[in-house]
Design a protein that fits this description.
InterPro entries: Cyt_c_oxase-like_su1_dom, Cyt_c_oxase-like_su1_sf, Cyt_C_Oxase_1. This is Cytochrome C. Pfam families: COX1 (PF00115). The protein is mainly alpha-helical and 559 residues long. It has a single domain, classed as Cytochrome C Oxidase, Chain A (Up-down Bundle), CATH 1.20.210.10. It contains 17 helices and no strands. α3 packs antiparallel against α4 and α14 packs antiparallel against α16. The chain is globular, with a radius of gyration of 23 Å.
Length: 559
């Protein structure tokens, strides 16, 4: 009894007095790495865009494909992963009464593993021995040390995931019969997906390492591609689920409102966890060796994710309208004037939500067989990816940083920094919209992805791409301005802003809300359901790839 009372007191004290200093240092370290990766990856993206537009020629010692690989690795794996882990560990510290010492140690071990792995992976890229791009699947082969670096990255992710599971399980033992606080519940879903989706890519990497060393002569290309996309497809939705946590819980509080149904929120999380890993074959629609029926099943599961997304759209815009009307908004659409457009903590994630509408529509295009045939391996796919990661995810993360970094640092968001954030948000929005629109149109015109600038012998079709490539370069230039402003804002709020208390914004449920059923807490059940669905989708095709394996491929170096 005394232990429970002490724990409850500690939890209330944490919520009232702010984050534990040791927990704050942990999350801030993850944030610093995340935004450092954004800065370096952003400049690499600018070089890439200028080169693709034919405006700037890269030197032979650091070519387009090196830049492309490093850009993808830094922004897709480093920036997003470190932000997600730092954010959810801050969430657990705040909502679960502070991190357990062993959990904090696990997160630091994961931090060290990931840093070591990224350094080991980046060195071969700089030496031009790993220009295999983010996807890195065979038959292209990098230096084996690149893949060994990836192993440490995965181990670091697993360590952080286990830390989350230990923290949440300990809280549940001490609070039997209670629901895990909603943000920690989001974090549980994210780390479940991170752990299970990284298992296939870990298997793939362990297949590649002996092949890259030359210990085995060939590798099963279909099997390795499939294992990669079981991870790659899920990774996008891990970012989306992280962003969604702020949309559901934080943004309503910033508006001065309450969050939508707790039951609906938890059902959305469960749905995304259960249906996410299945769907990887929609990235392989044009691949041979996969039956149409299996591809159709994966496409169905990919499109099924649209249902929790539609639930999210309804819930969030209902909250926006209800809160704005409570604040004096009138008319059919006039209520939007009462939304806090001058608060960057609201504006950035709101624009991110709106951007997800065309981003999601583009995903439907790429999940549809006939339409995918038109846009597959064109710049359309790159444009879609920049809308999802560059707008929906990154801008939500930016909005989170304007309250999370001051909270962790014991500082405040000043008017001046808020104004800078608004400027950064609009620069980023204009830049990304310009670039992504140009990429989509270039894809429809047939411009390929993953290639440096070429006029293909001054072919008329290729020359027709030039005006849109120039727009791509303009958008990229605006984006690097946004990157610099965002990193400056984070550094300022972390080290130089005035001292003070910043709220960790968590919206309460609506008054008279219905009681959330406890079956939503049965994560063991939902993980079993997820694994059954994954088995339905992958066991038969993977068995086919192994038993009736196509001729293996030797390693190729195309650069």
């Amino acid at each position: 009894m005394a232990t429970v009372l002490a724990h409850n007191f500690k939890e209330k004290a944490t919520k009232a007095l702010g984050v534990n200093p040791k927990d704050a240092v942990l999350s801030k370290s993850y944030m610093l790495v995340s935004f450092t990766a954004l800065l370096v990856g952003g400049f690499l993206g600018l070089l890439q865009g200028l080169n693709r537009a034919g405006i700037f020629e890269l030197p032979t010692w650091f070519n387009y494909y090196q830049v492309l690989t490093a850009h993808g690795l830094l922004l897709i794996l480093v920036m997003t992963a470190f932000f997600t882990i730092g954010y959810f560990y801050a969430v657990m510290s705040h909502t679960l009464g502070g991190l357990l010492p062993k959990v904090r140690n696990m997160a630091w071990i994961g931090f060290g593993m990931k840093i070591f792995g990224f350094v080991m992976a980046v060195i071969p890229i700089l030496l031009n021995q790993a220009s295999v791009m983010f996807t890195f699947y065979p038959p292209m082969a990098a230096s084996p040390w690149f893949y060994i670096g990836l192993v440490f990255i995965v181990l670091g992710v697993w360590m952080c995931a286990f830390g989350c599971f230990v923290q949440v399980a300990t809280w549940r033992k001490k609070n039997k019969g209670q629901h895990v606080p909603i943000l920690a519940y989001f974090g549980t879903g994210v780390f479940i997906l991170l752990f299970f989706s990284s298992i296939p890519v870990a298997i793939e990497v362990f297949m590649i390492i002996p092949w890259a060393f030359g210990w085995v002569k060939t590798i099963n290309v279909m099997l390795s591609r499939t294992l990669f996309w079981a991870f790659g497809h899920t990774l996008v939705n891990i970012w989306y689920l992280t962003a969604t946590s702020a949309w559901y819980v934080v943004v309503p509080k910033i508006m001065g409102g309450r969050r939508w149904s707790d039951t609906l929120t938890r059902v959305v999380i469960i749905s995304l966890v259960v249906m996410n890993i299945t769907g990887g074959f929609h990235h392989q629609i044009v691949d041979p060796g996969i039956s149409e029926s299996v591809k159709f099943m994966h496409v169905f599961m990919s499109l099924a994710i649209g249902f929790p997304s539609l639930m999210t759209a309804y819930a969030l815009f209902a909250v926006f309208e209800r809160t704005a009307r409570q604040n004096g908004g009138k008319g059919i659409l006039g209520w939007y004037k009462k939304m806090p457009w001058g608060d960057v903590r609201f504006l950035a994630p709101f624009i991110a939500m709106v951007a997800f509408i065309p981003a999601g529509a583009g995903g439907i295009v790429q999940s549809t067989n006939q339409l995918n045939q038109v846009v597959h391996n064109t710049m359309w796919v790159v444009g879609h990816f920049h809308l999802t990661l560059g707008m929906t995810v990154a801008m939500t993360f930016f909005g989170i940083s304007y309250w999370l970094v001051p909270y962790l640092s014991g500082r405040v968001l000043t008017r001046g920094m808020n104004k800078l954030g608004l400027i950064q948000t609009w620069i980023w929005t204009i830049g990304m919209t310009t670039m992504a629109t140009a990429m989509h149109y270039l894809g429809l015109l047939g411009s390929p992805r993953r290639t440096s600038f070429s006029t293909y012998g001054d072919h008329a079709t290729a020359l027709g791409w030039n005006p849109y490539l120039a727009l791509l370069a303009i958008g990229g230039t605006l984006l690097i301005i946004g990157v610099v402003l965002q990193v400056y804002a984070v550094i300022n709020m972390m080290f130089f802003a005035p001292k003070g208390d910043t709220e960790f914004p968590i919206a309460e449920e609506e008054e008279n809300a219905s009681k959330t059923p406890y079956w939503t807490e049965r994560w063991g059940v939902w993980i079993v359901v997820m694994l059954v669905v994954v088995g339905m989708a992958y066991v038969i095709p993977l068995t086919e790839f192994i038993v009736n394996a196509p001729p293996g491929s030797p390693p190729f170096r195309t650069w």
